[in-house]
Amino acid sequence: MRSRDATAVFTAAVVAVAAMLGGAFSPGPRVFVGVLLALTLGGAAATLRGRLESEEWAWVGFCGWGVVSAVAAASAPLAAREAVTVWLIAGALWLLARRADTPGSKAGIVILTVSAIFLATGILLEAAGVGHVRVGGLLENPNVTASLLVATIPTLLCLELPRRWVVAAAAVITAGLVVTGSRAGLLAVLAVGAAMLPRGRLRIFGLVGGGAGVAAVLIWRFASQPDILAWFRPAIWLAVLRIWAARPLLGVGPGGLVDAAGVERLLHADHVGQRQFLIAYSESSPLAVLVQTGLVGFVIAAVAILKWLSGTRRRGGLSPPMSALLASMAVMGAFHDLLTVDIVLWWWALTIGFVEARGPRSPLKDEPKSADGPFRLAVGFVFAFAVLWGVVQPAWARWLWRSEGPAVELVSRATRAEP
Question: If we measure between CA atoms, which residue out of 99, 64, 40 comes closest to residue 380?
C-alpha cells in the first residue's frame, strides 16, 4: 500500500475514532482528534503530488470566501475560525480519499462500515435499556447519528463481500437508524432505496412498500414522542431568511447565526408568543450556506458542486453507490443544518472520496511531476498550523476551563490559551 493510501486509511480511522468518542465535540477528545488530523493532513499536504482539480480549487475558494465573510461580519470570530477550519479539514479528507487506490479506498470503507455497525449496535442497546426510541447512542444527537449511518449504507455496494454479509451489515445499520427516530433519516433510507433499486416494477414496489413503512414509523414516532421542533421548522426557515435578507451578499459569517439571530419568538398554535427560541441552526444545510456565507458563498458552493458533477460525468457518470450516497445526503441536508457539525462533514467527505475512488474510472490515478520540496513542506506546515489554531487551541482552552473549575488564575490561563 502506498504512503498516500496509508494516510487516507489512517484519517478514516481517526474520523471513526472521533465518532466513537461522541463526535469529538467535548474538549478532551477534540484536542486528541485535532492533533492527529493536524499531523496527518499536514504531512499529506507536504507530500501531495499532482495539481488540484477545478472542483477542488472551487472548494478552496469557498473556504476563502468564508474567511472574507467572517471578517466582514466580525460578530463571532471564534465560531468562524472553527467553522472554516472544519470546512478545510473536510475538503482535505475528500481530496485525500478520492486519490486513494483500490486497496486504500476499500480499507477506508471497511473502517467506516465497522464503525457504523458499532454505532448502530450501541443505539439498539441504549434503546433496549431506556425502553423507547429517539436515542443517539454514543453521539447523543439522533440526527447526527442518522447522518453517519445513512451515508454508510450505499458504500456497502463498493465492498467485494458475500451478499449475506452485505445484507447483514445493512440490516444492523438500518435498524440502528430506525431506532434513532430521525424522520429525515427514514426519508433518506427511502431515497437510498430509490437510487439503488433497478428501474421497473421492482423499484415501484420497493418505493411503495418502503414509503408505507416509513409513513407507519413516522406516524408512530409522532404519536409516541411528539417533537415541537418539527412544527417550528418552517418558522425557523422564515426567520433565517429574514436574517439573510439583512446581509444578502456577505452573510452573517460562518458560525455567526446565533449572534445574528438573537432570541426569536416563533408563533405556534399551542403557545402563541409564550416561548422564546434561540436559533442556533438553520435546520437546512443549503439555507445555512446562504445565511452564513451570503449569496456569493452560495454561488461558489453551487459552482463547486456543478464542477464536480461535470467532471464525474466525463469520467463515466455517477455509479449506483454514489447516486444513493448523494440522495441520502441531500435528504438529510435539506432538513438539518450540518454545515458546522464537523463529524458529519468529515464522515461524508471520506465516504464521497472513497466511493469516487472505487468508481470504474476513478480520477487522479496518475501523478504528474510534483512541486518543489520546500514549497510543499511550507504548505504542509501552514495546513497543520491552521488545524491546530482552528480546532485544537479553542478545545484546549475549553478543556482547561472545564477540568479545574472557575478561578481567577484559571481565567488568566484559559485566556492565554485562547485570547
Answer: 40
- Measured distance CA(150)–CA(316) in Å, rounded: 25
All residues at 6 or more sequence positions from 375 whose CB lies less than 8 Å from its CB, including other chains: none
Task: For Cα atoms 329, 333, 335, give the angle at the middle one, nearest 5 degrees.
Answer: 130
Distances (CA, A) of 40 to 4, 179, 350, 364, 388: 11, 35, 14, 20, 12
Given a contact cutoff of 8 angstroms between Cβ atoms, the answer to whether 127 and 179 are in contact is yes
CB 41 within 8 Å of CB 384? yes
DSSP per-residue letters across 345-412: HHHHHHHHHHHHHTSTT-S--S-PPPPPHHHHHHHHHHHHHHHIIIIIHHHHHHHHHHHH-S-HHHHH
Of 155, 163, 71, which Cα lies nearest the Cα of 351?
Answer: 155
**Residue 348's pLDDT is what?**
95
Q: Which three cell numbers stand for residue 208?
A: 411503495
pLDDT digits (tens, 9 = 90+) for 69-96: 988 887 778 888 899 999 999 999 999 9
Identify the CA nearest to 38 among candidates 394, 384, 379, 391: 384
- Give the separation between CA 85 and CA 237, rounded to whole angstroms: 26
Sign of CA dihedral 177, 341, 329, 315: negative
- Cell numbers found for residue 322: 454514489
pLDDT of residue 366: 46
Amino acid identity, position 180? T
Instruction: Give SS3 for 137.
Output: helix
Instruction: For residue 22, give Cα distances in angstroms to 6, 17, 139.
Output: 25, 9, 4
Q: 196-227 pLDDT, tens per residue? A: 766 656 556 655 665 666 566 555 555 555 55
Give me the residues of the chain with pLDDT under 50, please: 269, 271-274, 365-366, 368-369, 371
Which DSSP string do the residues of 264-296 spell out, in sequence order? E----TTSTTT--EE----SSHHHHHHHHHHHH
Please report which helix (H) or strand (E) contains residue 6, including its range: helix 3-20
What sections of 181-262 are H helices per DSSP?
Answer: 183-196, 201-224, 228-246, 257-261
The CA distance from 89 to 342, in Å, is 9
What's the Cα-to-Cα distance from 155 to each of 161, 170, 309, 332, rounded to whole Å?
Answer: 12, 10, 19, 17
